[in-house]
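Friendly challenge for the regulars: who can give me the structure tokens for this chain first? No prize, just bragging rights.
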Amino acid sequence: MSITPHDERFMAAAIRLSRWHLGRTATNPSVGCLIVRDGVIVGRAVTALGGRPHAETQALAEAGALARGATAYVTLEPCSHHGKTPPCSEALIAYGVARVVISVADPDPRVSGRGIAMLREAGIEVDTGVLEAEGRHSLAAYLTRQTKNRPYVTLKLAVSADGMIGRAGEVQVAITGPEARAQVQALRAETDAILVGIGTAIADDPLLTVRTPSLESQSPIRIVLDPSLALPLTSKLVETAREVPVIVVASEEVWPLSSDAEGLPPSALPGIFPTGGEIGKRRDPNSPVSDGDGFALRQDVGQGANPDPISPLVGEMPGRAEGGASPADMDSRRAALEAAGVEVLYCNPYHPEVLLPALATRGISSLLVEGGAKTARLFLEAGLVDRIQLYQAPVVIGERGIESPLDATDIPSGFAHTSTLMFGEDRLDEYERGL
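First reply, four minutes later:
Bragging rights claimed.
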């Protein structure tokens, strides 16, 4: 059967539905499914919070007997393997669905093409690639982790009219207005983790949580590039680490004296990953909210990645990096941070081509890089940014301004401009690489 405008209309609705649970389905993708009979939606669902049940089984249960002879619209190829739940392809067959329309084939080797084959072998008509570009966009985080062994990286920058992202010596200079800041909260709520450098963490003392009412429990994991374990125990991040997970990425040079394997950090041990507590769970923060700004072979981290070592970020390396603390001091800092509930990950903070796969092993599929300028430049120079959100505001910073690492006139090659939106007086331009 050829694809009709009705197919595109129902798939567009399924894709919109799939976005409801972005960032809230653990390592599973957030998939949308509609069951349509005689032009009427008789069942609909999105992957449940935590990743189960899957969208198809919920939508079929809602449709019940009306699913027989109906068409299922699914944003991702139905699974075909037995995991913690039976395959969705089997459920579609059992309910007697006559046709399945799919937006995106699943790159997971346990599924890839097998779900489609199962359906066709059962006599079900299958059409694929309907609104595929839109479907891939909604599944970008999942697809990136599956195909590149790393999270999908979004870089967010708010730039003043004179090209600055802040003012030296001052904390959290307001650049954008309330409408734009509310939009950033929504972005945080659908992202697995948020990352800043230690300079930003010390200067701004941010919480990096979601402060929108009713969405607080969707706060992302907070990650700080902190080579010398300089994050203060009195910081908001440390004080709330038991409510919302915090990971500090420390240099391998400060690996604990008491470590096993002849003192080698985890990244030096082939096939062994750093481990820590369970970081996928999210809990409601109880503190007042303030705003703040795995390992794999290098060729696996994605197209455009820079294979050359990234230089340390001057100004982002307090403590030992500037000739300060002894190994014993490092052990003491590590113990104090871990006692407060912070996970310490020993992985070169200035090699994102190594760090990102390590985060993927922790189930992190999407990462938001928020600050500061040096950290943003680090990911840009490594070629490991997938999407840029560039807010441009009419505010003028003036003297002692911190220059933005990029503006609308020097977007790196490989990015396409995808949208322009206005939030009050602030303009948001989005740029994306192809998946």
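The first strand starts at residue 32 and ends at 37. Residues 5-18 form the longest helix (14 residues). Your move, everyone else.
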